[in-house]
Amino acid sequence: MKLTLKVWRQKNNQTLGRLETYVLEEVSEDSSFLEMLDILNEQLIADGQTPVAFDHDCREGICGMCSLTINGIPHGPDGGTTVCQLHMRRFNDGDTITIEPWRARPFPIIKDLVTDRSSFDHIMQAGGFISVRTGSAIDANEIPVPKPVADYAMDAAACIGCGACVAACKNASAMLFTSAKVAQLNSLPQGKPEKDRRVLAMVNAMDEAGFGSCTNYGECSAVCPKEIPLDMIAKLNRDYIVAQTKSIFTKVG
Amino acid sequence: MKLDSKIPAGPLSEKWSNHKFKMKLVNPSNRRKYHVIVVGSGLAGGAAAASLGEMGYKVSCFCYQDSPRRAHSIAAQGGINAAKNYQNDGDSVHRLFYDTVKGGDYRAREANVYRLAEVSSAIIDQCVAQGVPFAREYGGLLANRSFGGAQVARTFYARGQTGQQLLLGAYSALSRQIGLGQVKMYNRHEMLDVVKVDGHAKGIIARNLVTGQIERHAGDCVVIATGGYGNVFFLSTNAQGCNVTAAYRSYKRGAAFANPCFTQIHPTCIPVHGDQQSKLTLMSESLRNDGRIWVPNDTETAKKLRTGSMNPNDVPEDARDYFLERKYPSFGNLAPRDISSRAAKEACDAGLGVASTGLGVYLDFRDAIKRDGEQTIKERYGNLFDMYQCITGDNPYQVPMMIYPAVHYTMGGVWVDYNLETTIPGLFAAGEANFSDHGANRLGASALMQGLADGYFVLPYTIGNYLGEQGIAAAGKVTTDAPEFDAVEKDVRDRTERLLAIKGKTSARTFHKRLGDLIWEYCGMARSKEGLEKAIAEIQALREEFWRDVRVPGEADELNPELERAGRVADFLEFGELMCRDALMRDESCGGHFRVEHQTEDGEAKRDDINFSFVGVWEFKGENVEPALHREALDFEVAKPSVRSYK
Fold first, then answer.
1. Is B131–A190 a contact, with Cβ atoms under 8 angstroms apart?
2. Between 20 and 30 A from B325 (CA), which of A50, B148, B378, B553?
3. At what angle do helices B459-470 and B43-55 cross, to 10 degrees?
C-alpha cells in the first residue's frame, strides 16, 4: 500500500518543530506501524537524510516504550492497543497519516517523537511500592488474598506506564497512571499498612511534576492500551480523602 | 587463563548454606563507603540494585531504556517456577534441581542449579510480599500450572504477564531505593566498556544516549545484568534494543565467554510474515497445556492449507498428525522446547508445514474449547488470544493458531564462578547475561526464577564477600581520574568517530539482517561442520564490508538511534563468529545445540558425554585472532547423566 506520512520533526528541546511530509510507495499490510516507520527510516538513510527518532523496544505491547499520537489519537485508532501492535491492515491504500509525539508539559520532547517521561518514575519513587526488605517475607500462602481482590489488583497492575493517558488528557493529568498503582497496592492486604502514606505521597509527587487535575472526561481510559478503567481514579480519590482526613487527626505513615 | 569455579566443598544440599557462613561480611556502617555499579535494570539487575541499595551500599544503576521498568524481562509471559509443592504432587527442591539439570541436557553446573532450586521458594515469598498479583484459587491461596519439561505443577503466574508483574515488583523495590537516595538511576545510558584497575573491574564508560556525552563511572565493583544475545539472529523475540555489547566488551577486556552456541529456539512463536518484519512474537508456552500441535498427514493437504483453499477445521481427525503426542506420549505437547522446536522444523522440512510460507504448524484449541468451554479458555489465555488476533488478523477461538520456532533465549553467556564473578575480579554477571544454570536448554518458567535468584539472593551475599575481601581501606579508592579511564574512554571515542566517519552506503540495519540470515541458516536449529565453517568465513567478510560501507547518519553529540544500532551491530558481527566457532568445536548434539552429524536413527540429539561433558569457555586473544578455548569439566555427583527421554 502507498502512504503519505506527516511526521513531527524537532531537532531537540531548544528548537521549534514542524510536520514534514514523506511518501512511502510500498508497505505490506501485514507490517506493524513501527515496521512501517523502519521502512521510512531506511528510505531516509538511503537518501542521506536524518531518520526519525521514535521510542520503541519490545514491540509486543508490554514494555510501554512506544508512544506515538496517530491522527490525533495516542496509540492510534484501535482501542486497547499500543502502537507496536497496531498493524497497517488497519489503514487504507492512499491514506495520509499524521504522527506526533505525546503532547504534555510534564513530558518534554527530546527529539522528533521521543519524549522524557521520567516524571512517571518520580511518582513511583514517592510511594509506588510496598516496603519489604529482601529476604524478610513470610511464606507466600500465609496471606490469603480473595480471588476477586487478586483479580482486581491484577487489572490495575496491567498498566504499562506508557503515558497515553496523559497525552490524551486536555489537563495532562496523570490520575489514571497513579490510580492504577495505588489501586493495586492499596487493595492487597500486603499493601494496607502503607495505604494512606502511599496515596498522599504519590498524589503530591504527581502535582509537583506538573500534571493537571482530573475533570472526568475519560479520554485516558479510552486510549489506554491496557484498558485500565476509570473506577481506578474513583478508588484513588476515595483513598486520598480518607488519608487526608486521617492526617488532620493523626500522623499518617 | 585459569578457571576456578569455586564450588564449595560438601554435600550438594549444604554447599550454599556452608558457603554463606564462610563468606566475608561488610559491617552495615561500612557499606555506604562502597559503590556498586549495576548495568541493566531487568529482573537480575533491578533486583540486585534494589537489594544492595537496601543493605546500605551506594549503588548506581544503568539502563538504555527511558525507565528501568521497561527492561525486556517484562515480556516474559508464562510463569516462574518454585519448589513450593503447594499442589502436593511430589515436588521438592531436589526434583526442581533434577528437572533443570536434565532439561539442560547435562551441560549445567550442578552446584549452581541446586542453589537456584533452593532459593526458588523465597523468590515467590518476596514477590507476593511486594504486591505481585499472582493468580489465586477461590480459597485465596496461590494457583499453579504445569510447564514444559516437568510433570509437576510448580509454575506461578500472573495471567500471561508474569514477567511484567515480577519486573514491576523489582522496579517498585528499586524505585523505593532511588527515592531514598540509596540508588542513583541512569536512564538512557548505555555501557560501552568496562574499566580495569590493577586487574579488577573498577568502573565503566557509558554513553548518555540523550546528550551523546561519553561518561566515566568509577565503583568498587561492577555487575553486568544486560540480558542475552538473541538479537544476533536479527529476528528474535527479544526487544529491539537487546544487545551483546556490555557482555562482549567485557569479554574483550578479559572476561571469558561460556557456551555461546547454546541458544534456545522457542517452539511457539507467530510465523514470519515477510521481509519487512522486525521482530518475532512469542506465544506463551503455557498455551501448550491446552493447545494440540499438529500438521496434516500428507503434503497435498498441506499445500491446500498454505494457499487457503482449505480450512484447517475441515481436515478430518485421521488426516492430522499430532506429532508431539505421537513421538513423546508421556510429555505430549509439553515436551521441552528444544525437542518441540526441532519436531516442528522436521515437519515443515518434510513439506507438511502450513502458513503461506510453509513455515508453520497448528496449535489447535478446538478440543480444549469443546471440553472446558470458551469462557474457561478465555480466562486462561484471553490476552494471548487477543494478541494473536491483533498481529495475524485470525481469531484463534475459531481457527487454529499457527506457530513456528523462533530464537528466544540464550543459555550461553559470560562465564562466572559459583559467586557469579567473571574471570575479571570484581566483575559480576547475572541473569541471562551469565551462563551458569540452564546448560544446553532452558526449561520454561526458569528464566524469571534465575534472574531473581541472582539478583535477590545470590549477589547480595557474594558481592559483600568480594568487597569484604578487598578490605575497607580499598573502598572508594579508585576515582575517574585514574589513567586507566583515559585509555578506555579513548577507545570508546575512537570507535564512535570511526563509525561516523565511514559514511558508506548501507544502513546498519541491513548488515544486521544479513548477519541474522547467516546465523539462522548455519547456527540455528540444525548445525553442521560444513555450514559453520562457511558461516565463519562469510561473517568475516560481512564484518569487513560493514567497516567499509556502513552509513551512520547524524552526530555523536545528540540522541542518535542509528549510532546506537551501529555500535551494537558491530559487536554482533564479532560475536556471531564466536558463536559459530563454539558450535563448530562442540562436535556433539545436546539440548538446543543440534549438530546434524550427531543424531539417533529417529532424529534425536545424540550427546557425547565422554568428550564433551564440559563448559566451552573462550578467551579473547586479540582482534582477528582465534580465541583460546578452555574447558571447565562438569562433574555430576547427584544427577547422573542419562539419555534424556521424554517418550
1. yes
2. B378
3. 50
